[in-house]
């Protein structure tokens, strides 16, 4: 048995930018910047992801949700393109929003904190990966994720999610979705560079779309900032994203304190019921 | 669809966080595991009070609860053959990892104590294991509340201060009720008192839980299946208390009251579980809490 000390990877900020430390070697933390203003809804990212990672198909269900028949991220689907239709003045014009969603590779990752087998690890790229030869499918990560990213991967009976193409990164290649994206809506690179690029981009976009905002770019937010950051044109919940996600383990101390009081009260109650003499 | 409506209903009303991928074996485990924990504590206290008849029944109840719990925990895994992977690491950040060690230690001590008691062998070691199980019992009854609170599920995360109290009180009700069902009335006065105290604490604790959640988030507990289980639990619980007070000292009365209170505690655990599922499936709970 080994005690896991990698549950909270320490990030160092240096002149070279944000670094991930692992086994003594330092590397830059890698991630995605998904610029939804450039997305054309082609779903090449979904297909490239399925092909490269050999994920099970989603079937042929027709949802009626605009062009979205994928519905959600899950163990079988690691990229999901959302389509949002919005009525605009003057009627009948419509604004059509598209967004390719993916695992956020959180700085403080709920799934990683709660995984009881050590199957979920932080990699040398600062990403969060489920090792499917270790996962026993307990399902705790599914409910611990503030974004609803994780689900059961049907063909393997383990939990699945985006690995940021860990195997491709090892070989120095770009993740499949970013490689396939024809408009550079999905950009791959070191997270600190992506944050800077996202900031410049949102300032330009705001000149024409005042509602434009960056999502998960702030390292002081409830998940310590995402390894995946997004440029959105409306509120996060419109895209099916939580408006202010917080890693549940932030409150773990509070929870155990409440539990300690409950345990003490329970023990006291049992003793009281046992010792009271009855006629 | 208008912009404003989308900021309230989210993306086609689809869930923002995932509902549990668990089967109903998990709420059953919350019940049997909680009952086993408190039953072992009661067994230890009764042994110390020289009420060997009730002590023997309660350590038996604890062992039975452990056996059902172990089955539920393993059978719910998508890969049950990998159950032991839980024991390859210890992670304080994971209540499930902490819990698996609590459960392992507790069930080992309980099985050893019950075996020693039934077979009449190694009495000293058996008593030592019984005392150990009694000590771990409260943790066994309450850690599952931390387990579900440490999730992104609104009904659980936002009820984190009172969930452990409700888990403790329903465990007391269940253990007391099991004692009333399995032990002769002359020896089970402590079990009766524990069941009544537990049920009263549950009624108060659930009110506090709803207060902590606020009216909007508490809807997860009052609507749908969760609401139906909660209502059933209240009715069964009040009927169980009344029956215990009126006829708890008679055999048939104790059995009936025990069954009512046992069912009340089971319904309460299912109500909490269903509330979590409902609050995850409906994105308005996350949006209300975070926007």
- Total beta strand runs of chain A: 14
Order of helices and strands of chain B: HHHEHHHHHHHH
Low-confidence stretches of chain A: 1-17
Structural domain tally of chain B: 1
Distance between the termini of chain A: 53 Å
Number of strands of chain B: 1
Describe the structure in your own words.
The complex is a heterodimer of chains A (279) and B (291). By secondary structure, chain A is an alpha+beta fold. Chain A has two domains: 11-246, Alpha-Beta Plaits; 249-279. Helices cover 25% and strands 23% of the residues of chain A. The radius of gyration of chain A is 22 Å and the shape is globular. The model of chain A is unreliable at 1-17 (pLDDT under 50). Chain B is mostly helical and 291 residues long. Chain B has one domain: Formate dehydrogenase/DMSO reductase domain (Formate dehydrogenase/DMSO reductase fold). Classes of the chains: A alpha+beta (279), B mainly alpha (291). At the A-B interface, strand 1, strand 6, helix 2, helix 3 and helix 7 of A face helix 1, helix 2, strand 1, helix 4 and helix 5 of B. Strand 1 (2-3) of chain A pairs parallel with strand 1 of chain B, so a sheet runs across the interface.
Main features:
A: 279 residues; alpha+beta; Alpha-Beta Plaits; 2 domains; four-stranded mixed sheet; three-stranded antiparallel sheet; 25% helix; disordered N terminus; B: 291 residues; mainly alpha; Formate dehydrogenase/DMSO reductase fold; 11 helices
Topology (elements, then pairings):
The complex is a heterodimer of chains A (279) and B (291).
Chain A (H helix, E strand, L loop, with lengths): L1 E2 L7 E4 L2 E6 L2 E4 L1 E6 L8 H10 L26 E9 L4 E9 L8 H5 L5 E3 L5 E3 L9 H5 L6 E3 L4 E3 L5 H5 L5 H5 L5 E5 H16 L6 E3 L12 E5 L19 H24 L4
Parallel strand pairs in A: 5-14
Antiparallel strand pairs in A: 2-3, 3-4, 5-12, 6-7, 8-9, 10-11, 13-14
Chain B lengths: L2 H7 L15 H24 L3 H25 L12 E2 L4 H25 L3 H27 L4 H4 L5 H20 L6 H34 L1 H24 L3 H31 L1 H8 L1
Helix pairs in contact in B: 2-3, 2-5, 2-7, 2-10, 3-4, 3-7, 4-5, 5-7, 7-8, 7-10, 8-9, 8-10, 9-10
């Amino acid at each position: 048995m080994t005690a896991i000390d990698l549950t909270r990877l320490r990030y160092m900020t240096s002149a070279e930018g944000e670094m991930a430390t692992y086994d003594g070697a330092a590397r830059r933390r890698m991630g995605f910047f998904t610029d939804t203003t450039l997305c054309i809804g082609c779903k090449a990212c979904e297909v490239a992801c399925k092909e490269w990672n050999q994920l099970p198909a989603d079937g042929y269900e027709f949802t009626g949700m605009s062009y979205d028949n994928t519905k959600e991220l899950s163990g079988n689907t690691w990229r999901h393109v959302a389509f949002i239709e919005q009525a605009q003045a003057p009627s009948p014009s419509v604004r059509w929003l598209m967004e390719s969603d993916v695992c956020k590779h959180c700085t403080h990752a709920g799934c990683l904190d709660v995984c009881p087998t050590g199957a979920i690890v932080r990699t040398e790229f600062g990403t969060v990966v489920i090792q499917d030869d270790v996962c026993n499918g307990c399902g705790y990560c599914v409910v611990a994720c503030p974004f609803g990213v994780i689900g059961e991967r049907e063909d393997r009976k383990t939990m699945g999610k985006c690995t940021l193409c860990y195997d491709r990164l090892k070989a120095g290649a770009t993740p499949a979705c970013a490689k396939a994206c024809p408009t550079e809506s999905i950009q791959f690179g070191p997270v600190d560079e992506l944050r800077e690029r996202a900031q410049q981009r949102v300032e330009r976009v705001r000149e024409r779309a005042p509602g434009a905002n960056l999502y998960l770019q702030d390292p002081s937010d409830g998940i310590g900032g995402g390894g995946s950051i997004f440029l959105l044109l409306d509120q996060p919940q419109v895209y099916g994203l939580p408006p202010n996600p917080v890693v549940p383990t932030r409150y773990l101390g509070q929870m155990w304190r409440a539990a300690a009081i409950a345990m003490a009260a329970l023990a006291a109650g049992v003793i009281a019921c046992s010792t009271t003499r009855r006629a | 669809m208008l912009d404003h409506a989308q900021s309230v209903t989210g993306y086609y009303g689809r869930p923002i966080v995932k509902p549990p991928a668990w089967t109903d074996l998990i709420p059953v485990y919350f019940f049997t595991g909680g009952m086993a924990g408190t039953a072992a504590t009661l067994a230890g206290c009764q042994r110390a009070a020289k009420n060997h008849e009730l002590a023997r029944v309660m350590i038996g109840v604890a062992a039975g609860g452990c056996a059902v719990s172990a089955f539920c925990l393993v059978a719910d895994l998508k890969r049950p053959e990998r159950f032991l992977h839980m024991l390859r690491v210890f992670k304080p950040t994971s209540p499930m990892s902490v819990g698996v060690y609590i459960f392992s230690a507790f069930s080992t001590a309980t099985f050893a104590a019950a075996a020693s008691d039934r077979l009449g062998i190694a009495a000293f070691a058996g008593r030592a294991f019984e005392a150990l199980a009694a000590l771990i019992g409260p943790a066994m009854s309450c850690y599952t509340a931390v387990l579900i609170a440490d999730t992104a599920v609104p009904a659980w995360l936002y009820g984190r201060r009172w969930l452990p109290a409700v888990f403790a009180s329903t465990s007391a009700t269940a253990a007391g009720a099991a004692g009333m069902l399995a032990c002769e009335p002359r020896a089970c006065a402590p079990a009766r008192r524990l069941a009544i105290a537990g049920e009263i604490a549950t009624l108060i604790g659930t009110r506090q839980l709803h207060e902590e959640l606020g009216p909007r988030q508490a809807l997860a507990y009052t609507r749908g299946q969760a609401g139906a289980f909660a209502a059933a639990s209240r009715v069964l619980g009040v009927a169980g208390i009344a029956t215990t007070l009126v006829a708890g000292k008679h055999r048939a009365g104790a059995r009936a009251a025990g069954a009512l209170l046992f069912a009340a505690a089971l319904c309460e655990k299912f109500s909490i579980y269903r509330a979590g599922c409902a609050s995850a499936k409906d994105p308005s709970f996350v949006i209300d809490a975070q926007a």
